[in-house]
Amino acid sequence: MNKKSRWSFLSNGYLLLILLFIYLPIAYVVLFSFNDGKSMTKFAGFSLRWYEAMFKDRTMLESIRTTVVVAVIATAVSTVVGTITAIGLSKARPLIRAAVLEVNNLPVLNPDIVTAIGLMLLFIVPGVRLSLTTLILAHITFCIPYVILTIMPKLRQLDDNVAEAALDLGANPWQALTRVILPQIYPAILSGALIAFSMSFDDFVISFFTAGVGVNNISMYVYSMKRFNPSVNALSTLIVVVVTLILVLANLIPVIKDKKNKREEQRL
After folding, report:
1. What is the enclosing helix (H) or strand (E) of 77?
2. Which positions ≥6 away from 141 have C-beta within 8 Å?
3. Are 67 and 217 spatial neighbours (Cβ–Cβ below 8 Å)?
4. DSSP one-letter string for 188-218
5. CATH code for the domain defined by 45-267
6. pTM value?
7. 134: Cβ–Cβ under 8 A, 6 or more apart, which residues?
8. Is residue 266 exposed (0-12), middle (13-18) or buried (19+ Cβ within 10 Å)?
9. CA pair distance 21, 143, nearest whole angstrom
10. Do the beta carbons of residue 146 and residue 74 sit within 8 Å?
C-alpha cells in the first residue's frame, strides 16, 4: 500500500468513525422507541406502546404544540426581517454594513446564557410579564442574526447591474425585488429559514429564562421530567423523521426547479 492509498484509507476510517459517533445514538433512540419494555439496554420486542402513550400525554402534546407554534412564528418573522435587512445592508455603505454586521455577530458569538439573561432583563425591568409572547419575541431576536449571516454571502455574489437593468426597463423597486433579487437568493432564504427553525425548535437556555409560568417547549419538558419517560424516544423519532423530510424536500425542490427551467430553455 503506497502513501497516498494509506492516507485515503485512514481518512475514510476517521470519517466512518465520526459518522458512527454522530448517527449511532440517533439510531439507538429510534430502535428503542419501538421497544415493548421500559429498559434502555434490553430490547424486549417490537411495540408501538410508547407512541400511543405519547399521544395520550396531554402535557407532552402541549409542549409539542408550543414548540411548533413558537418555531413557525419565529422562523416566518425572522426570515422576512432577516432577508429585508440583508438586502438593505448589501446596498448600504461599506462602513455602515461592516458596523451592523459586527453587531449582528454578537448574539451568535455570545454564550446562550448571556443572551438569555439579557433578554430576560429586557422584559422584566420594564415590568413585562413573562409569557408565550415573550418566548416568541426572544426566539425571533436570536434567529434573525442567523438568517442575515446565511443570506449575505449569496447577496455578495449577485450582479448589481441586473437589478439596475430591471429598473431601467420599467420595473418599479417592488418588481425588481420580487422578480429579480428574491428568485436569485431563494436557496439562501430557504437555508436561513431552516436554520432559524432548527435553532428555535431545540432551544432550551433562552426559552428557560424568557418563558412564563406554565409555558413549556419540548426541551423544557424533558428537563423537568423527574424520571426518564420512554415516550421521549418516540417523540425524538418523530422529530428526526420530520427534520429528515424537510431536508430532503429542501434539497429536491431546487433540483426539480433547475431541471424544469432547463427543459423550458431547451424548448425555446
Report:
1. helix 58-90
2. 107, 119
3. yes
4. HHHHHHHHHHHHHHT--HHHHHH--TT---H
5. 1.10.3720.10
6. 0.82
7. 123, 128, 210, 211, 212
8. exposed
9. 28
10. no
Residue 161: count of CB within 10 angstroms of its CB: 9
Phi-psi domain of 91 (left: phi exceeds 0; alpha: psi -120 through 50; beta: other): alpha
Please give the DSSP secondary-structure letter assigned to residue 111: -
Whether residue 197 contacts residue 242, with contact meaning beta carbons closer than 8 Å, is answered with no
Question: In this structure, what C-alpha cell is assigned to residue 6?
Answer: 494509506
Residue 198: what residue type? S
All cell numbers assigned to 34: 419501538
Q: Residue 219 is placed in which grid cell?
A: 426541551
The three three-digit cell numbers of residue 169, written as one number:
426597463
CA distance 190 to 246: 11
Q: What is the pLDDT along the chain (268 residues), one digit of tens a residue?
A: 566 666 676 777 888 888 888 888 888 888 888 888 887 778 888 888 888 888 888 888 899 999 999 999 999 999 999 999 998 888 888 888 889 888 888 888 888 899 999 999 999 999 889 999 999 999 999 999 999 999 998 888 887 777 777 777 777 778 888 888 888 888 889 888 988 998 898 889 999 999 988 888 888 888 888 777 788 888 888 888 887 887 777 777 777 777 877 777 777 6
Question: CA–CA separation, 186 vs 151, rounded Å?
Answer: 9
| Whole-number Å distance between alpha carbons of 229 and 43 | 16
Phi, psi of 131 (to 5 degrees): -160, -170
Give SS3 for 44.
Answer: coil
Q: Where are the beta strands (DSSP E) in 13-136?
A: none
User: What's the N-to-C CA distance of the chain in angstroms?
Assistant: 53
